[in-house]
Amino acid sequence: MTESNTPRRPGPWDPRPEDVAVAPGPAAPVRANEPPLDKGQNPVWALISTLLLGGFIWIITGSWVIAVALIWGLLVHEYGHVLAMNRLGMGPARIYIIPFLGGVAKSQRLPQSEWHGVLVSLAGPAFGLLAAIPFFAGFIATGHGMWLLGAAVIAAVNLINLAPAPPLDGSKALGPVLARIHPMLERVAMIAVGGLVVWWGLMSGRWILAAFLAIALIGHLKRGAWRPDGRPLSGRESVFSVGLFIVTATACAGVGLAALMPLGGGSLPVALDLAGRYLGVGD
Question: How far apart are the first and last CA of the chain?
């Protein structure tokens, strides 16, 4: 997930605020009320938060492999956002670990365009797949299936993050595309998908995730601020946004199936069944 320390442009609910002020004299325009430079999360608190999150995952799953995979996958995922933010002039970006919930990458500056926002949102899931490499290597070296389970979990986390529901990355990747068609379409789609994701969390026993997503969705609805200020997507960029989203989602699904197929004896139907059961959509 991604956040910014600076004010955001209102979404379909609120009128657009005047958040740009022009400095007197020849200086370039500067943003009003720009916050001080973000120094990042305190290292001690970051370590404590990581241990709390890892311990919590270990307790609810009973597997140290899943706990390590999720923590490692989370850090690599968020670092993907950080790399994109810094590359696109939004840095210095920082990673914050949230106890019992996950993590977020925060930028210091808003992107110059919605296209940059799309790139940042998709950089997390795309780069996050690299976290599965050590687990595939562990399986090749030892032959133990637990390493494949870790790789599958990493792929699943990145895939779930692509759901177009606030505050997940998918909402920031597809939201501008939908809003370009009509702002109300973005509103309806995000509420519908957000409700489905919360329902999925409840039905699959992921109570904390469901509560977190529900709170985040309500927060987005109340503040009406979905995307940063900046140049809207062009028609060509909208097509590229959808294409990159599909490629990223396909890559996440492919990595997950590559990890599950050996566990299913090399059978694709069995691998799909294992994936469905883990995601809570199987029999």
Answer: 30
What are the CA-CA distances from residue 173 to residues 100, 117, 238, 245 (Å)?
Answer: 25, 7, 10, 7
pTM of structure: 0.78
Q: What is the pLDDT of residues 158-199, one digit of tens each?
A: 998 898 877 789 888 988 898 888 878 878 887 888 788 778
For the stretch 101-112, pLDDT in tens is: 788 888 888 888
Instruction: Tell me the C-alpha to C-alpha distance, in Å, between residue 216 and each of 40, 198, 220.
Output: 22, 10, 6
Separation of alpha carbons 241 and 246, rounded Å: 9
Tokens 């998918």 locate to 170
pLDDT tens per residue, range 55-84? 888 887 788 888 999 999 999 999 999 999
Contact 10, 17 (CB under 8 A): yes
Kindly write down the DSSP assignment for every residue of 37-50, as one continuous string: PP--S-HHHHHHHH
SS3 103: strand
